[in-house]
Amino acid sequence: MAAEIAKPLPAPTLETRPYWEGCKRHELRIQRCRVCGRYQFYPRIYCAQCFDDRVEWVAASGRATVLSFTIVRRPVSPAFAGDVPYVVALVTLDEGPTMMTNIIGCEPEKVAIGMRVAVTFEDWNEEISIAKFRPA
Q1: What is the pLDDT of residues 60-73, one digit of tens each?
Q2: What radius of gyration do the chain's Cα atoms show?
Q3: Which of 22, 45, 64, 113 has the greatest count of CB atoms below 10 A from its CB?
Q4: CB 98 within 8 A of CB 68
Q5: Which of 95, 97, 102, 100 is nearest to 41 (CA)?
Q6: What burial class does residue 93 get, using C-beta atoms within 10 Å of its C-beta: 0-12 exposed, 13-18 middle, 19+ buried?
């Protein structure tokens, strides 16, 4: 029997640590600018809209709409061979930002642009949980 190859784990940084800590608690967290009120994802040290550095972490609703997707049928590495086929998608959070994720909990052929989805979390180890989405 061949040894299982571990998936590469994200490495939290100063900017992303609050996001990963939220995921560990199964809470989707994004940033909101205290000045202009805009939500953003991916994490940054400043607001991408007004460039102010007063950004705060808030809990997102966890609801989103599929903007685009692809079905991966060939794994990007041997670590993902057991997952194919899987869906890589761009979803637009109800708060506005777009994030890349996986759609799980349904057959890949059932995923559609405009589909409503909700966040769920996949625990990869004691420290890292990955935000994914399933049909709402």
Answers
A1: 999 999 999 999 99
A2: 16
A3: 64
A4: no
A5: 97
A6: buried
Q: Is 13 exposed, middle or buried (0-12, 13-18, 19+ CB in 10 A)?
A: exposed
CA angle (22 as vertex; 80, 4 as ends), nearest 5: 20
pTM: 0.92
Please state whether the peptide bond connecting residue 12 to the residue before it is cis, i.e. omega within 30 degrees of 0: no
Sign of the torsion angle spanned by Cα atoms 102, 98, 40, 75: positive
Residue range 29-63, pLDDT digits in tens = 999 999 999 999 999 999 999 999 999 999 999 99
What is the per-residue DSSP string for the chain?
Answer: -PPPPPPPPP---TTTHHHHHHHHTT--EEEEETTT--EESS--SS-TTT--S-EEEEE---EEEEEEEEEE-S-SSGGGGGG-SEEEEEEEETTS-EEEEEE-SS-GGG--TT-EEEEEEEE-SSS-EEEEEEE-
With a cut of 50, say whether residue 1 has pLDDT above it: no
